[in-house]
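Ticket reopened. Same input as before:
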Amino acid sequence: MSLPKRSLLVPTALAFGFAFLYVPILSMVFFSFNNSRLVTVWDAANSPTVKWYVALFQNEQILSAAWLSIRIAVLNATGATVLGTFAGLVLARFGRFRGRTLLSAMTTAPLVMPEVITGLSMLLLFVALEQFIGWPAGRGVTTITIAHITFSMSYVTVIVQARLSGFDGALEEAAMDLGARPATVFRRVTLPLILPAILSGWLLAFTLSWDDLVISQFVAGPGSTTLPMVIFSKVRLGVSPDVNALATLMILVVAMGVVLSAVVLRRSERRLERERREALAETA
Amino acid sequence: MAGPTVKVGQVGDPERFTPLWAAYYRFGPPRWEPWLRRSGAGRKLVIGIPLVWLCLFFLAPFFIDFKISFSETRLAMPPYAPLLEWGPDHALSFHLHLANYRFLLSDALYVSSYLYSLKVALISTLLCLLLGYPMAYGIARATPTARNLMLMLVILPFWTSFLLRVYAWMGLLRNNGIINSLLLWLGVIDQPVQMMQTDFAVYVGIVYSYLPFMILPLYTNLEKHDPALLEAAADLGARPMRAFLRVTLPLSFPGIAAGSLLVFIPVIGEYVIPSLLGRPDQLMIGRVLSDEFFSNRDWPVASAVAIAMLALLVVPIVLLQRVQARREEA
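Engineering reply: fixed in the latest deploy. New output:
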């Protein structure tokens, strides 16, 4: 509105920006079907081929690393969602209390803290803990999961807090006035309201853990090699076509997940809106 | 069939009449609720669990980090000397080893990688802003359907693997990569241009990975602007460009600040992008830290590097905290 309607700056930036965001991803998908080992030279005679996908599913190292990453990601997402929901609830609804500034700072800082710092510090903590209380013994799934929960719970907190501040406290107050105890208010009123946020928080925490390389590298032990660590060591030596196939599969899963969750979210929003209208109609 | 009535274990069985049951009959079931509500124990628990977790696993490690940055390297596990130690003469000695920091300041490698990281972070923040601002502006001004679609397109890459998206650029930027092949085929160049392992590749990788962090806070800000303000400016005779510079731009300052900080702070310590795309002769500070740790196994120096990096980041992190708090209030 403020720039002249004829101005081409904004459309150009949008077109360029989206091309910039998506051309690299699409190029990976395209070349994952290439026959040539030289990733970026299209071998027209023998392509498209699915041989890199076949190779991927025969690679023991990648399969076992993927399984480990999935297990850690599920543990992490569940833990981070519980802790992050608590923190988000506390920051959005509990008013002033001692330690509020500290809690709010400690949920903002992990979002931006360079991963090398977080990774190193966590490792030093685990080593010190092992020295003094003997736990955690060695490094592996436990230490990776704790480290992942610590940085990904902040994302859940932000999502839950944003969702809660979208509703005023009137619904909870009404339930309270009708005699519901705090735990009941949470279970019957607050939880259904923030359920979409909790679900997307869980998915985001899963993705963050599934994706994390740097922190895992610091706190992993021998025998706990996650998928990003395998990919990184392959990729460091140069491009390799089976990584393209892996990327394509991951993009496919994510795209389906995002579309599905958008549909579910929209449906639940609509239902909430309809229920609210009906409730209003009844009172009128 | 008349059998004996089973009484064992039944409530009120006189043979099992313990003092606990007596209390139960006298006062009824225990009523935790009033006690919980009066003491606020439930509330404290809900506050306490995340607070304790973060204090233990996020805050405490920095103190350990700080402590170890003052200790001496040793060939042991863990490879550092304690600060407090019983000496051979049974005297408690306290070693404050400042050599790690002196080492950082004296060695040109550390100083140059520190400054280089700062330069890369500043320039890539600026580039993200230059590309992200018009995009956020366009999204905020689009029709609701187009807006939702574009927002989803901005967020979608965020859900796919960061590592793999950086890897994608390796295939594009290599000497026999897609961009060079395309340019050669078009006849624009007759020699492949060296793009991998240059500053250019690092900027491309960083802008590509961090662009959503710039666009989203800017969009949240720009979307809230009241169009009436711009109409008023136009009524008062301001040309669109002037109205933008005098109304929209100043109002979007909190969004610019939040987006810039969200890019600048993590980029300072970026490790993956410069390792895969960057120059081998000029390291960024994140790479130096992990080399000290993994290759040289020098934990105290790695800790000192981390503390030096944190010292640089404290002010931006506090600023970000302020900006976010103000946005929450608004």
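The two ends of chain B are 77 Å apart (CA to CA). The mean pLDDT of chain B is 86. Please confirm and we'll close it.
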